[in-house]
Structures are given as C-alpha cells and as structure tokens.
C-alpha cells in the first residue's frame, strides 16, 4: 500500500513543480530568472509557506525519476525543461531536426489543425516528438491518440528554426499545415 501512496505523492509533487516552474511562479511568490531558473531552497520555502511541503529528497526523487525529464537541476537551481507559458528564454541553440518529427493529438482537434497548422497555444513553442511512440503517449493524455507526421526537413529548408530541449522534446514556433502529414484510413 505504501508504494502506491509514494507513487501518488511523486505525481502530486511533479504536477506542483510543473505548475509553478512553468506557468504560475508568482502564485507562490517565486520569481524565475530570465532562463527559468530559481534557487531550490527558495522554491522549497515558497512551497512550504503556501501549505505544500516538499523535502529536498522528494524533489531530487521527482527530478531523477521523471521519465520525461521535465526538470533540470544545475548546482543549487532548478527549472522546467520546457513547456512554459511564462516568459523565459531557455537559451537553447538552434538544432537540425531529423527529417520527420511527430505530434500527438486527438481527433477533435484535427479540423483546426488542418486549417491553421500547429500553434503553441498558451506555450512558447509547439512541442514535437522524435518518434511515433512518444507522440502516441502524448496524444493519449487527452483521449484516443492521433499521430501527425511533421516534415521537419522541409520546414528547416524553408527557414523554420528548431530547438531541442534537455529532455529531447523538439520545439518550433509553429508548424504550418503544408508540413503536416495526416494519418489516412486504416
């Protein structure tokens, strides 16, 4: 029974960190630097002051154990690896993507995607996966997944810039519809 409780606590801590390191740092009195970093001690104190105590061991466990590597620790600082809706510059250098990348979504979004392409919505960038399996997992978080192919090579040739985060997520400002490959009937 304890292991299940530990797993639930780990998920709860991870979601708390994501919320406050990606989207709402001000809600617990945090100020991220221009690259999204905050001192770990400051984060832990702010969380505790707002009724959510996190031990350093729990934080280290969440950072090390997260299969998506959502967080990065550098010295005494922590930040979210990507996915911010607050203004940060992760300082990622432009990177040459593989020929194809993938995006997981659900069928109800396909009409808008066909018309407008992929847009970052409330994030800074569109998130793309290096393989179909990862994109399938991403899409499955919202329902039955649909995986779109992205002709990253053609986009790059036509001047679109790509970045890759520390956890392997490919980022670009948008993906116009002409670069998308929609799944056909099976």
From TrEMBL:
Q: Name one GO molecular function term.
A: transferase activity
Q: Coiled-coil ranges per the record?
A: none
Q: Please name the Pfam families in this protein's record.
A: PTS_2-RNA
**Could you tell me what this protein does?**
Removes the 2'-phosphate from RNA via an intermediate in which the phosphate is ADP-ribosylated by NAD followed by a presumed transesterification to release the RNA and generate ADP-ribose 1''-2''-cyclic phosphate (APPR>P). May function as an ADP-ribosylase.
Q: Which family does it belong to?
A: Belongs to the KptA/TPT1 family.
Q: Do you know which HAMAP family this protein is assigned to?
A: KptA
Full protein name:
Probable RNA 2'-phosphotransferase
Q: What organism is listed for this UniProt entry? A: Streptomyces chiangmaiensis
């Amino acid at each position: 029974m304890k292991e299940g409780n530990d797993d639930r606590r780990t998920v709860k801590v991870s979601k708390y960190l994501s919320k406050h390191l990606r989207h709402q740092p001000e809600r617990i009195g945090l100020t991220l630097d221009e690259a999204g970093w905050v001192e770990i001690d400051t984060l832990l104190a702010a969380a505790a002051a707002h009724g959510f105590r996190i031990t350093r061991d729990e934080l280290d466990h969440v950072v090390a154990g997260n299969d998506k590597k959502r967080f990065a620790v550098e010295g005494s600082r922590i930040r979210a690896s990507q996915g911010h809706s607050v203004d940060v510059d992760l300082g990622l250098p432009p990177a040459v993507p593989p020929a194809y990348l993938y995006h997981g979504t659900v069928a109800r979004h396909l009409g808008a995607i066909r018309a407008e392409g992929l847009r970052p919505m409330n994030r800074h960038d569109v998130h793309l996966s290096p393989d179909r399996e990862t994109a399938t997992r991403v899409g499955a978080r919202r329902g039955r997944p649909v995986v779109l192919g992205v002709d990253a090579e053609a986009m790059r040739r036509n001047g679109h810039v790509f970045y890759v985060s520390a956890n392997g997520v490919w980022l670009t400002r948008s993906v116009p519809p002409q670069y998308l490959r929609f799944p056909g009937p099976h």
